[in-house]
Design brief:
Structural class of chain B: alpha+beta
CATH topology of the largest domain in chain A: Immunoglobulin-like
Shape of chain B: globular
Strand content of chain B: 15-25%
Number of domains of chain A: 2
Radius of gyration of chain A: 27 Å
Order of helices and strands of chain A: HEEEEEEEEEEEHEEE
Largest sheet of chain A: 8 strands, mixed
Shape of chain A: globular
Distance between the termini of chain A: 108 Å
CATH class of the largest domain in chain A: Mainly Beta
Largest interface: A-B, 51 and 58 residues
Helix content of chain A: 10-25%
Distance between the termini of chain B: 67 Å
Largest sheet of chain B: 5 strands, antiparallel
Number of strands of chain B: 39
Structural class of chain A: alpha+beta
Oligomer: heterodimer
Number of strands of chain A: 14
Radius of gyration of chain B: 28 Å
Strand content of chain A: 35-45%
CATH architecture of the largest domain in chain A: Sandwich
Helix content of chain B: 10-25%
């Protein structure tokens, strides 16, 4: 039976500790890598995104909870909102998008867009203005209600989801059938 | 004793002698063996880019798509070609026992059998084949294919002369009608002579021969003409401009009865281009845009092609708020056709037959867009029609029909069935399904929902008149440019009807390239505009209707005369002063659509296999309501999923086509820059050089006499569809001038348009470019004065006098232009 002296035991213990540490580090790093890669169940990599609007200057303005979102009655009486999405992280240039509007006392409505492009916007990426149609197109069914807006951007490997609670308003009650002659409610 | 049946020994003997002599002549003539095509070839459908990788993809059932019917003289047997869809062609002809209501046999014939005709002797059936280079001749006794005579691709319909001596065939590829002199024998059809084809209108389909055999009439769907051919002289004597698709033609010895639509171009009566040929602006009809679209039957005199009668569908006038009422003289009500002609009761007159009925002569018409059948009585002396009853048919998309021993056999193309109907009562008898065993009833998927709505749209239109297929027959286009509602100057502009093919990889859609599969609502909107529905009516609720309006309509919605000129504040034009009742009892458009879906399809919700609401948070997918939005999306899904590109019979490997390809791809012409393969249109899917999807005009815009650009879009359209692009007034003029008159610079403003795909251009209407001003591909390609142009042709490759703005072609020699044409026509 081999004999080990104290010095050798200390060395062996150090080697063992080092090996354990390396193994632990390896396991942790592997774990970290696993978190960054699509798992076996194809879980997508998550990135951050937020809903907002594009202002007149073309800048993205994020929507905060409680924000007022204008309902637009436009061409041929269509009812819609103009939103945009900004995202950070490992963001695809082109993605599918799903949107939903859950207003109090109303069934959720939603739309899918099969191809949404994102372009650099400072340190983030963002979409252009996206028209989200509301159905039924009756402004009275929506205005004055609280609503939860949700958006999802997703490609084959990446995904983000964002939710914001807003107030749906119709501050501009005119119908914008043409840019130079909106039709506005009669004062009577 | 009936005098007519009394036997005359002398005449009977003479007849026998004549018959013997005739038989001798035939049997002693040159022995023409039956022929088989030497090398059978079948056109292959291209690959579908909308595949399993797409989240809305689901495999679709195979459907038989019966397209025609021929019934034996005793009315017991029917022969029905199972054409299949454009993307999934069938290859069989079904043989039906009409008494038992059974399928006796399915005869494998060729690729996409399209039409069928029975020889008058009753022993042979001939089927035409769209995708095969031959016909199929079938023995009616044992249903065996006897032989397959060589023929051009895209033979679509066939008819024998009453004496059985000639077979006439229409050909969609060559835009021609063919005559073969034939002899039917027990071993097949002996072809004695193939005459030179006779050119007819674009995309001919149905044809008919007079009982006396003297005249052949050919109806061209895309070209909107009926050609009258002297069968003996073998020449086209008249080409009748019907002004709308000629879906079918039936003949007696003196007249042609044509299933068609209104000839209006949806312009203002007295403004815009002169489209009725009266030398004055406008189309002469008071309604504009889609509201001008009617379903019609026309009667023509064979001797000179003169139109004798034209009947229309204004019988359901004024259910849509835009309808001009005959009493509304201020809006041109007096320009409407006489009320006595408002007798066409269904949408999309498709096929018709003349048949004796109850001691008189009747015309039966199928309405493919509203699942209906109507009977008319024909005045034997004049050809005038008197409306009879209209009945629903027991299946989707009734097209072909035939008389079968006193019954009507109606072919439902989408449902895949043949139903027997009583011509007196319309009562349905047996229905024979032609679906393969185990196939689910139609529609069974969300793609099929969209397909059904595309063809049978009428229930979703408030006046029951309109379908998508009115202008987009089988996905193609018709040779007509219309006034469209999205333009800045409504009622005076022009947009050429577009083919609805290869839609998946050519998005965004339409000339404006601003819409896609989820949001092309303005098109569907025209079928049922919101102004027709109480809860959307801003004349009643200027700030919007109450939130619960559709479930608890307020009193205004049920008032007997809800429309009041005093209440006009919003969407109704100022000149609209005639009162209209509500078109439906449904207070909102969504309820109207869901009710129509329930009535037509039996469901209010999608199947959920391709149309679903996807919760962004939970990823849960749920079926969507078949309301306005749901129906729009169903149509969009259908357009994406089904390319419907007819396989091209023009070879791409001929010397001219190969040379033409080199020219097309050269930097000098630049064609491939905006029309890159494989989509042959810059799109969000295909854009190898990264060029803008929408570009400034490459040809001269359409302008009026004030030089205004009539191509401009309505500003509201550009807002609702932000991909749409055009110059603002301020882009081209000073702010001060625009503030003073926002229209003052409309002659300088440009609208940006997308590049339509070139695939399938071989099958399209002759008119081309966004305004339909070019007549044929050569006018599109050539610069003004190009030597390749023929007499009377105008080179359209210029913008405001600058040549080569639509690709560099002015340097090409005439032969090179022909090469370029050959290549483009092979795409």
């Amino acid at each position: 039976m081999p004999r080990f002296d104290a010095r050798n035991d200390r060395v062996a213990a150090m080697v063992l500790a080092l090996v354990l540490a390396l193994v632990l580090a390896l396991v942790l790093s592997l774990g970290a890598c696993v978190a960054e890669q699509p798992a076996d169940d194809d879980s997508p990599i998550l990135f951050d995104c937020e809903l907002g609007e594009i202002d007149k200057a073309g800048a993205f303005k994020p929507l905060q909870d409680g924000a007022r979102v204008e309902l637009i009655v436009g061409f041929q009486g269509f009812l819609f909102m103009e939103l945009a999405v900004r995202a950070k992280g490992d963001v695809p240039d082109v993605t599918r998008a799903a949107f939903s509007v859950r207003a109090e006392e109303r069934n959720p409505v939603g739309t899918m867009k099969n191809r949404v492009k994102l372009a650099p916007d400072g340190d983030a990426m963002r979409t252009d203005k996206l028209v989200i149609f509301l159905n039924p197109a009756q402004v009275g069914m929506w205005k004055g209600r609280e609503a939860v807006l949700a958006a999802k951007l997703q490609d084959d490997t990446r995904k983000c989801v964002t939710v914001v609670q807003v107030d749906l308003v119709d501050d501009d009650a005119c119908i914008h059938v043409d840019d130079d002659k909106p039709i506005c409610p009669s004062p009577k | 004793m009936n005098h007519a049946s009394r036997s005359n020994p002398f005449s009977a003997g003479l007849a026998v002698l004549v018959a013997l002599c005739a038989g001798l002549v035939v049997s002693c003539g040159p022995p023409e063996p039956v022929t088989d095509v030497e090398q059978p070839r079948h056109l292959q459908v291209g690959s579908n880019p909308f595949g399993a990788g797409h989240p809305q993809f689901v495999a679709q059932p195979n459907r038989p798509r019966p397209s025609d019917i021929a019934v034996s003289a005793d009315g017991k047997r029917a022969w029905v070609p199972l054409q299949g869809s454009i993307d999934k062609p069938g290859n069989q002809v079904a043989v039906l026992d009409l008494d038992d209501g059974t399928v006796l046999d399915r005869v494998t014939t060729c690729s996409s059998p399209s039409g069928v005709a029975l020889h008058p002797d009753g022993d042979l059936a001939v089927t035409t084949c769209r995708y095969s280079n031959h016909l199929a001749v079938i023995a009616t006794s044992d249903h065996k294919v006897l032989h397959k005579p060589a023929a051009d691709f895209y033979m679509v319909r066939a008819a024998f002369t009453p004496d059985g001596g000639s077979l006439w065939l229409t050909n969609r590829w060559r835009d021609a009608v063919y005559r073969w002199d034939v002899d039917a024998r027990s071993d097949g059809l002996h072809i004695a002579k193939r005459h030179k084809p006779i050119a007819v209108g674009t995309n001919p389909r149905d044809l008919a021969i007079t009982p006396n055999g003297r005249t052949v009439a050919v109806a061209s769907v895309t070209g909107m003409t009926v050609s009258l051919v002297d069968a003996k002289a073998h020449i086209e004597t008249h080409r009748i401009a019907v002004g709308a698709p000629a879906a079918d033609v039936a003949l007696d010895d003196d007249r042609a009865y044509v299933a068609t639509l209104s000839r209006a171009t949806h312009h203002r009566a007295h403004a815009g281009p002169d489209t009725d040929g009266d030398g004055k602006p406008g189309d002469g009809t008071p309604n504009i845009n889609f509201q001008d679209l009617q379903n019609e039957l026309a009667v023509y005199r064979l001797s000179d092609g003169k139109e004798l009668f034209r009947y229309t569908s204004d019988s359901i006038c004024c259910r849509d708020y835009r309808d001009v009422h005959p009493a509304d003289i201020a809006r041109g009500g007096d320009l409407l056709p006489p009320k006595s002609t408002w007798i066409v009761a269904g949408a999309l007159p498709e096929q018709l037959i003349l048949a004796p009925h109850a001691g008189s002569k009747a015309l039966f018409v199928t309405y493919a867009g509203s699942n209906e059948l109507q009977r008319f009585t024909v005045d034997k002396a004049t050809g005038a029609l008197t409306a009879g009853p209209t009945w629903p048919t027991p299946g989707h998309n009734p097209r072909a029909l035939a008389l079968a021993a006193g019954r009507l056999a109606v072919v439902h193309t989408l449902a895949g069935s043949v139903s027997m109907l009583d011509p007196g009562t319309g009562k349905a008898g047996k229905t024979i399904t032609l679906q393969t065993a185990g196939a689910p009833a139609y529609p069974a998927t969300d793609v099929e929902l969209g397909e059904l709505v595309n063809h049978v749209t009428a229930p979703f239109s408030v006046d029951g008149d309109q379908t998508c297929a009115h202008c987009h027959r089988d996905g193609g286009n018709i040779d007509k440019a219309f006034s469209m509602p999205l333009t800045r100057y409504p009622g005076v502009g022009l947009r050429m009807t577009m083919a609805y093919r290869a839609a998946f990889d050519t998005r965004p859609w339409f000339f404006e390239s601003a819409m896609d599969e989820d949001n092309f609502k303005p098109v569907i909107n025209e079928f049922a505009r919101i102004e027709n529905f109480c809860c959307h009516d801003y004349t009643l609720f200027s700030g919007g209707a109450p939130g619960d309006c559709s479930v608890d309509p307020p009193a205004q919605c049920t008032a007997s005369s809800p429309y009041s000129p005093d209440g006009v504040v919003a969407t109704r034009p100022a000149d609209m002063t005639y009162a209209h009742p509500r078109p439906t009892p449904h207070p909102s458009r969504d309820r109207f659509f869901k009710a129509a879906a329930k009535s037509l399809i039996g469901r209010r919700w999608s199947f959920g296999d391709g149309l679903y609401f996807e919760d962004p948070v939970t990823d849960e997918r749920l079926p969507i309501a078949l309301d306005f939005d749901g129906i729009t999306r169903a149509l969009g899904l259908f357009l994406m999923a089904r390319p419907r590109l007819l396989p091209n019979p023009n070879p791409a490997d001929t010397t001219p086509a190969v040379r033409g390809r080199a020219i097309f791809e050269s930097a000098a012409t630049g064609c491939a820059t905006c029309h890159p393969a494989p989509s042959f249109a810059v799109s969000s899917e295909v854009n190898p050089l990264g060029v803008p999807i929408r570009m400034p005009p490459v040809v001269s815009p359409l302008r009026d006499d004030k030089d205004r650009n009539l191509d401009l879009m309505a500003g509201g359209f550009a807002q609702a569809f932000p991909k749409a692009e055009q110059d603002t007034c301020e882009d081209v003029c000073s702010k001060e001038q625009c503030a003073k008159d926002p229209n003052s610079c409309d002659h300088l403003r440009r609208v940006f348009l997308g590049a339509p795909t070139l695939r399938g251009i071989w099958d399209r209407a002759r008119s081309m470019l966004h305004h339909g001003e070019a007549q044929g591909l050569r006018e599109v390609l050539c610069t003004p004065g190009h030597p390749a142009l023929r007499n009377g042709e105008v080179g359209r490759n210029e913008r405001d006098g600058v040549p080569d703005t639509h690709g560099g072609t002015s340097h090409l020699k005439p032969q090179q232009i022909r090469d370029l044409e050959a290549y483009v026509l092979s795409l």
